[in-house]
Amino acid sequence: MAHFGFENDIHSILKLDMPITNAPMARWQRKASSSNTSALSGLSPGKSANVSLSSSKTPSKTPGKNKKQTPSKMGGDRFIPTRNSKQMDVASFLLTKENEPVDTSNTAGSSESQKAWSMSLNGYNIEDAKILHLGGQPLNAPEGYQNNLKVLYSQATTPASVQKTRYISSTPDRIMDAPELRNDFYLNLLDWSSRNVLAVALHNSVYLWDASRGDITLLMKLEHEEDYICSLSWTKEGSYLAIGTSDCKVQLWDVENQKRLRSMGSHTARIGSLSWNDHLLSSGSRSGHIHHHDVRVAEHHIATITGHSQEVCGLKWSPDGRYLASGGNDNLVCVWPRVQEGNASNQSVRCWSEHQGAVKALAWCPWQPNILASGGGTSDRHVRIWNVNSGSCISSLDTQSQISSLVFAPNYKELVSAHGYAHNNVVIWKYPSLTRVAELNGHEDRVLSLTLSPDFSSIATVAGDETIRLWKSFEVDPVKKKAKERMVKSTSSVINQSIR
């Protein structure tokens, strides 16, 4: 009942049809009292009190209406319950300045600085302290404000609470046929070079698609029909392509001249994963062994790592070249140190066994070199984020689907996952919160591999439905892109001048 009584009191005050106790004297009352000082001085105290308190009757003519009055000393002339004293002072200050000439030479440039100063000094934007708002729409309430009376603020959604999101197309930008693609979860059959060339392995052949010109080239084909390609990996410069085969060989190809440079044999089983670290090529085999190859020397096989008991299906060097991450069919994720002086340590830096399925999906974070993401197979379905320095699992997410590939997208700081059973789709996650941003559906079979374009704006996926789909999901705003390019040019010019 007290609540209803309070609202009735508020309504009665707002109607202004009854005296308001303890309120400042109205302006017309102050002017009337000042003009009639001599007349009031002769009255008795009781009568003078009656004159000052006769606010229930509205005067027939407002005093001073025909005279233009400029407020000389401002003060609150009415009661506004939602204004604090600081805002009233600021509003009074604004009213005293309204007749001053405005400097229009730098109005646009100074508006943002004035807003910043106001937020710093007052704790709120000075524009929000205006008593009157004569625009077409009412002022929006601060975010999260609830006004039961609905008399001062609009209840429309505030701009601050509306997230500006980019448009992500749910349909692929391009679809290409991939006939005779081997539908094997443990193989890595797709890779995109820094020179914008996409390599895909179709059974025993490797095809190249130039994304800039649209040309398709047959690079190589194995001699024996029963053999097949198991893995692909471009060098950082994009000039050479390493190819792992089912006949236990690693072939190195000069793509520009379409010439095989060498064939390196050291494994005893098929080679399902490859990863480059400058001149060092690491290969993972079905035997569980990882071999390091120095491609500059004749005796290429320089070290062997025997940390996995089953097939090594995931292999990734960190961006800074310090660590090699490996995932296997034994559900292990291991991190190995860099090869030094021709010897590789067989002792892992980290080894995690939290996954309950085969770990093929591995991805290092480009902007946090000590962060590794891993994804489990059908029995696990979890994406796990690891801190290599501390050895802890930062976060874990159940995707409800087999994870075949992971990649970080730097343009928007997101993580992209490719899935097999049961969803057969691609999901974009915000990092590090791992909240779902978008789903890319279209493949009719499990997605086997996922790779990122060199400009980080697109991803390519290959699936068991024998199609390759390109998705432009990470294009940068043109204005921000130009600003970034200008920044890169300016820094490069400074570096060149320092070198000279």
UniProtKB/TrEMBL annotation:
Region (Disordered): 27-82
Gene behind this protein: cdc20
Keyword Membrane tagged: no
GO molecular function list: anaphase-promoting complex binding; ubiquitin ligase activator activity
Matches recorded under CDD domains: WD40
InterPro entries from the UniProt entry: Cdc20/Fizzy, WD40/YVTN_repeat-like_dom_sf, WD40_CDC20-Fz, WD40_repeat_CS, WD40_repeat_dom_sf, WD40_rpt
Keywords noted in UniProt: Repeat, WD repeat
Pfam family, one: WD40_CDC20-Fz
First and last residue of the signal peptide: none
Species assigned in the record: Dicentrarchus labrax (European seabass)
BP terms from Gene Ontology: anaphase-promoting complex-dependent catabolic process; positive regulation of anaphase-promoting complex-dependent catabolic process
Record protein name field: CDC20/Fizzy WD40 domain-containing protein
Biased composition (Low complexity): 32-44, 52-63
Residue ranges of WD repeats: 222-263, 305-336, 377-396, 440-472
Domain CDC20/Fizzy WD40: 176-471
Family named by the database record: Belongs to the WD repeat CDC20/Fizzy family.
UniProt cross-references to PROSITE patterns, sorted A to Z: WD_REPEATS_1, WD_REPEATS_2, WD_REPEATS_REGION
PANTHER family: CELL DIVISION CYCLE 20 CDC20 FIZZY -RELATED, CELL DIVISION CYCLE PROTEIN 20 HOMOLOG
